[in-house]
Amino acid sequence: MPQIFRFGSYWVYFWTNENKPLEPIHVHISQGHPSANATKIWITKTGKCLLCNNNSKIPERTLRNMMRMIEARNTDVIQKWLEYFDEIRYFC
């Protein structure tokens, strides 16, 4: 499971098995370590974030800040996705 970066005690990462066909580019966020109930955020073609779900119940302010961080580092996120999965699709 590729970890992209950490934000305090939160991990931002990909799951190694993102289904076949590959799901559109997204990241998971959980506190402490990867979890099946992680928050899921889609990355758009323009590098913006769309919240898919907040299953890990990250406080709204923290989640908003994390989404801003992901948007600011969208080039790195996209590059790591391509390096790992060798293809990319977008939710929108």
What this model shows, in words?
This is DUF4160 domain-containing protein. With 92 residues, the protein is α+β, with helices and mostly antiparallel strands. The chain has one domain (3-85). The protein is built from two helices and five strands; from the N terminus they run βββββαα. It has a five-stranded antiparallel β-sheet with strand order 1-2-3-4-5, with helices on one face. β1 and β2 form a beta hairpin. The protein is globular and about 30 Å long. The mean pLDDT is 91.
Chain-wise SSE layout:
Blueprint: E1 3-7, E2 10-13, E3 26-31, E4 39-43, E5 49-53, H1 60-72, H2 74-85
How many helices in DSSP terms?
2
Please, how many domains? Answer: 1
How does the major sheet shape up?
A: 5 strands, antiparallel
Q: Which strand order do you get reading across the main beta sheet?
A: 1-2-3-4-5
Unreliable spans: none
Distance between the first and last residues' Cα: 24 Å
What is the percent of helical residues?
A: 25-40%
**Strand percentage:** 25-35%
Q: What is the succession of H and E elements?
A: EEEEEHH
The count of β-strands is 5
Overall pLDDT confidence: 91
Structural class: alpha+beta
3D shape = globular
Q: Over all CA atoms, what is the radius of gyration?
A: 12 Å
